[in-house]
Amino acid sequence: MSNNIYDCLIIGGGAAGLYCAARLARAAFAGKKVLILEGGSRVGKKLALTGSGRCNLSNSAIEISKYNTDDAFKLEKCLNRYGYLETADFYENVLGVVLEQKGTLIYPSTLKSSTVVDALRFYLADFHIETVFKEHVTSIVKNKFFEVTTDSDETYLAKNVVIATGGITYHSTGSNGDVVNILQGMTDESFFVPFRPALTSLTSDTPGIKALAGIRCRGDVKVLNSKGIIKAQSEGEILFTKEGGISGICVMDVSDNVVQLIDEGETDIKAILNLTGKSAGEIFQMIYIRRQMYAHRNCADALSGMLLRNITDFVMKSMDLKCDKMTLRELDDKKIAKLSNLLCAFPVSVTGYGDADKAQVSSGGFKLSKLDENMQVKNCPGLYIIGEAVNVNGICGGYNLQWAWTSAALAAEGISQNV
Ligand SMILES: Cc1cc2nc3c(=O)[nH]c(=O)nc-3n(C[C@H](O)[C@H](O)[C@H](O)COP(=O)(O)OP(=O)(O)OC[C@H]3O[C@@H](n4cnc5c(N)ncnc54)[C@H](O)[C@@H]3O)c2cc1C
């Protein structure tokens, strides 16, 4: 056991852990001992992957309705206290990262996630806040101080502990849902919502869908339960996966609801896809006009200026028509109407969801309702939980990293008042 007694030990050097340490820099400067214990061999591994390597670190239009949690009221208060503006101010004026806005999405102007990881690393180095690597924490016990034990049999003593171990996705980045194991001796299952993959792909056994592997289109998706009730909807890019399923931003945004429906035992879930980004009426008009212009061409060629050939083929096959064998002249008004309707509302069966390891975030984790407004575990002074380890997850668009920054900043504020 080390003789050092740390003022604050942060478990996990991901987005939330690093930001929390950065927000504690002033306390460190005043002589307080702050240390990060990181299970892996480098910090910010998942952060480096974000936004396809560009790091969509926040959103200027953060809305509570874009999140899923057990305590929406508290989440709103947290985001109001420390939201996009406070985060942007810290990044630009303290960490020195120039930000760029694309629509409402916020990125570093370099469009490189390594800029964000480096800014945090360099700032921590300036304040001599160190990280011990390959220290995988296995348990915490509270006696006079917190006793934090690692799998190398080291025990660290601390007055405050922040758990920032992330969720269950992308195991290669170090996150395995460890918050549950670490707190085993101090909590029971009532403290947690089980971790599940969110922002993930959906699998389907719809005939012919595998032929669309790799195809992307702009459109929208609606998720229907067995009673035909719309349970979720979103618009944006749809990507067909090589496993024979659907992904892309708008599919990921509704995936959380699908995971929930499957867990509730729903077996007849449908995703209704608009594969055109337009209305069926508009598509009817476009095909109708093309029939006058290119009546002699086969349907695939005649529609190639407005539809990807694979999509025309897939949808016409579902009508028992062969797009390369039939001329547009042969497509009568009734068939054009049916094709237009299917292109704008194609029903795809949903059989499951992608592997947790490939999901962008997890839902579930330590209940927000069991934390106070500074992310401190109620009735356990000095123990804080932040980031994806907490039961808060958002849709794509910078919402999840914003939660990492918000929860980290609030925990740091609480700790600064105590040390
Ligand atoms: C491919 C991808 C792209 C994404 N893009 C975006 C995006 O553009 N915008 C956005 O808002 N969100 C994005 N996200 C989500 C975002 O990355 C996460 O929400 C965020 O990283 C969560 O931060 P965290 O610090 O809570 O957890 P993590 O970043 O997962 O960090 C947890 C850290 O804790 C360490 N750790 C775990 N267990 C232990 C232990 N027992 N002992 C010691 N250390 C431990 C891990 O090694 C890791 O370093 C993306 C996610 C993925 C996978």
Helix content: 25-40%
The structure class reads alpha+beta
The tally of structural domains comes to 2
Tally of DSSP helical segments? 13
The main pleated sheet reads as: 7 strands, mixed
Bound molecules: flavin-adenine dinucleotide
Question: What do the pLDDT scores average to?
Answer: 96
Q: Which parts are unreliable, with pLDDT below 50 for 5 consecutive residues or more?
A: none
Can you tell me the CATH superfamily of the largest domain? FAD/NAD(P)-binding domain
CATH class of the largest domain: Alpha Beta
> Which term fits the overall shape?
elongated
Using the CA coordinates, give the radius of gyration: 25 Å
Enter the CATH topology name of the largest domain.
FAD/NAD(P)-binding domain
Total number of strands: 21
Percentage beta strand: 15-25%
- Head-to-tail CA distance between termini: 22 Å
- Do you know the CATH architecture of the largest domain? 3-Layer(bba) Sandwich
